[in-house]
Amino acid sequence: MSAGQEQLSLFPLIDERAVRQAVAKELKAYKALHGAAQNRKEQQERGIAQLFPRLQSSDTKNILKPQQIERALQYSLDG
Q1: 3-state per-residue secondary structure call for the chain
Q2: For burial by CB atoms within 10 Å, which of 21, 53, 55, 56 has the most?
Q3: Whole-model pTM?
Q4: How far separated are the first and last CA of the chain, in Å rounded?
Q5: Which residues, in sequence order, are CB contacts of 1 under 8 Å at separation 6+?
Q6: Rounded to an integer, what distance in angstroms lies between the CA atom of residue 31 and that of residue 79?
Q7: What is the chain's mean pLDDT, rounded?
């Protein structure tokens, strides 16, 4: 191939940095999910339904958390 000629390709160029970031993100998620699966398996093998008691539902927490963060940001930015 001479200078100035471009090779035609059936595949688009790949952003290697984006691929590495996506793979790293998925591997971190896998690590957490794998650990959670192992914990569930151990609990099931020993007949334990709930190892840690729940003090409040996650729905309540998911509703209150953003509200309290919003309030904290509002008061900290006003001062």
Answers
A1: CCCCCCCCCCCCCCCHHHHHHHHHHHHHHHHHHHHHHHHHHHHHHCCCCCCCCCCCCHHHHHHHHHHHHHHHHHHHHHC
A2: 21
A3: 0.43
A4: 66
A5: 7
A6: 41
A7: 76
